[in-house]
Amino acid sequence: MTRGKQKIEAQRKNAEKNQKSKGSQLEARAVALKVTCPICKVQLANQNQLGDHYGSKHPKEKPPSNSE
């Protein structure tokens, strides 16, 4: 076990280490998801995922053009 100054230093380092992770995962997710499916309102990261989404979830529909 540590005593005195070592204990205080270890507690300070652990507090700094645990404090670095600020922000939530929901905020990061909102920034990353930029494309939305107009039919079911699912948010996707890019146009390629939107094309795959249309192929699996909306096979009878055509995916929107890349300009949207």
Topology of this structure?
Layout: H1 5-19, H2 25-32, E1 35-36, E2 43-44, H3 47-57
Question: Which short descriptors sum up this protein?
Answer:
68 residues; two-stranded antiparallel sheet; C2H2-type domain-containing protein; ZNF706/At2g23090_sf
Strand segment count: 2
Major sheet size, sense and barrel closure: 2 strands, antiparallel
> What is the terminal separation in angstroms?
61 Å
Oligomerization? single chain
Strand order of the largest sheet: 1-2
**Portion of residues in helices?**
40-55%
General description of the model:
- With 68 residues, this protein is mainly α.
- Strand 1 (35-36) and strand 2 (43-44) form a beta hairpin.
- The model has no long low-confidence stretch (mean pLDDT 84).
- Strands 1-2 form a two-stranded antiparallel sheet.
- It is built from three helices and two strands.
- It has a domain at 32-68.
- The protein is rod-shaped.
- Residues 1-19 have a biased composition (Basic and acidic residues).
- Keywords: Cytoplasm, Metal-binding, Nucleus, Zinc, Zinc-finger.
- One of its GO terms (cellular component) is nucleus.
- This is C2H2-type domain-containing protein.
- Pfam families: SERF-like_N, zf-met.
In a few lines, what is going on in this structure?
The protein is 50% helix and 6% strand. It has 68 residues and is mainly alpha-helical.
